[in-house]
């Protein structure tokens, strides 16, 4: 095969275009390489407090944001077990693989899970949430993704929060693991009760930390919640973290690196600029995809954290993913769950710039041409550049 | 100005597309970050010997290759003072800024310098070297650049060596600082007497090391040469380096990193593959330049270490350089010497891959459009991708 012959002779730099992990920000790499601090010291407490303050700005809230040493899924579980008791009714909005995870965590802890499903690629509209809550007033929690990473679709969290925030006994828990920092999220202004974020997404850190913000409504629910919990006991964390410590040994180097990551976001002008960056890169990618004949998985409900694309007719998406890796050492994500083997996913969240994305799109054109797809070379780039120019006048 | 408004809001990664320094290879970065070794130890001697062995492969010679702790210019001076005596006649082939450096070093040491000049952008043909040597048989050394970094032009070193190698008392000294590893160089097979290389070029190290290979003819000249020298006394270095040490304190971390750089070249399949890589990237860049209406500075004599381009009519090259830096944090080189302010130069030597160069070319299109140049968006990319596909079937 042609690609096999040519690939050994060209230099290739490993690049991740996956929606987590994302490329590490260089200041993060430097921070990770430093000698370790001890976590029960004033020096580390100062770092920790800077981080929690920075996370509040990142999530646009005055609520406490807790730092947990676990993956994003751990943060999801911590949030769920902290606001619900076994047997509680909960609503899981399922528009893809990660929506299913909310339902699975709820079932694992004995919750009465009602699922509101959307076609993969679509999102569950706020009206359906309102109807479901009207139908079953016992529902104590609504669980949703800001960005559904398996399809690139986004939920209208602002509209959903408008539904939940008037209902005293129902909290809104948002998995913003891949959405925060890539799409608009006004935690306080919208009235979102719990937000969960992962470190390996827009903040461009390695995986290993999760961040959970809790509103006063969420803390009230936590006081009532009887789900057994120890490591994920957020009330215990709240007490410790008020003093600049975590309840248990934290991932120290990752916290030091988190400070560097938050400083980088601040240096860009704050989270709004990072969101705008992902928005421009996402729009440019969608423009290229349309010009090249790669249909969007989420044409109506797309977010900006990533773009999920079907292969053009006659080409297998798996072949595209493999060829980008083999010839250019660029890793784009394939499909998950029921979209496995059918799509490719290109990340925009985090530490990506226009040169990254335009370079990837050019190599995508080369790979599509090798795989026999018919289009005018350069057409995707022309569309992406035009969209970039339109959005950055 | 539009660029000023848009640039603060988009993420930008600093990228060097300059013909030295070039981006550091990651294994080099890791090696540089290690704790220091002592240089008078068996551990370091083993590293040093691995490096000199690897450099022989890199330069395709069995001649000793000496490692000097200095910049490339230091390597040039070491070579010149080692093979000539004050008052000796020497021939400097001057096709640009770095050719002038050979003449300047010669004059600084009292040599009788004859200059063979070419128009900047052209190269001095081997026939003119033969004529000059016939005219003045006292000439003891011919000094030339493999790649003239100020114009992107290349000398036909193979043909020039055919002229010099039959003349017993005339050595050929090649500045391959930016050429080695980016263009064909068969030191032994062509009969090149002295080759000078710098670390911050194709080997993707920081500046600080120079490498000098010396043939037996060159060593014979060194025995006769009476130019005063101490730090640049290559005979002294030869003796020390045979034992895996340098005569004076070496740039230890850079030598450790050099081993990593040479291992990377070996992992690609050897220097021929690195040369091929630069060749494909150079050809793709030239194709894009033609499609976009940016004339080559060296249309007939171009090398592959870098591409030097004039701005399209109506656009200032300095504005292009500035805009790439301001909007995308990409640094391309401007002109040097008499081409200052007139051209831009894009590097291909070293640690660059297709994604890098295609990404840069896309941002170049965006910048050209902003600066008012008229062309079809995507035209440069279409040409570059087509050329890439043609050369990597």
Question: What's this model, at a glance?
Answer:
The structure is a homodimer of 393-residue chains. With 393 residues, chain A is an alpha/beta fold.
Task: Please provide a written account of the structure.
The structure is a homodimer of 393-residue chains. By secondary structure, the first copy, chain A, is α/β, with parallel strands linked by helices. Chain A folds into 2 domains: 2-19 and 270-391, Aspartate Aminotransferase, domain 1 (Alpha-Beta Complex), CATH 3.90.1150.10; 26-268, Type I PLP-dependent aspartate aminotransferase-like (Major domain) (Aspartate Aminotransferase, domain 2). Chain A contains 15 helices and 13 strands. Chain A has helices spanning 2-6, 26-32, 42-59, 72-83, 97-108, 126-135, 157-164, 187-190, 216-224, 234-242, 252-268, 271-292, 317-328, 354-370, 379-391; strands spanning 15-16, 64-68, 89-94, 112-117, 139-145, 147-148, 153-154, 171-175, 194-198, 210-214, 306-310, 330-331, 343-347. In chain A, helix 5 (97-108) links the parallel strand 3 and strand 4. In chain A, helix 2 (26-32) packs antiparallel against helix 11, helix 4 packs across helix 5 and helix 14 (354-370) packs antiparallel against helix 15. In chain A, 56% of the residues are buried. At the A-B interface, helix 1, helix 12, helix 14 and helix 15 of A face helix 1, helix 12, helix 14 and helix 15 of B.
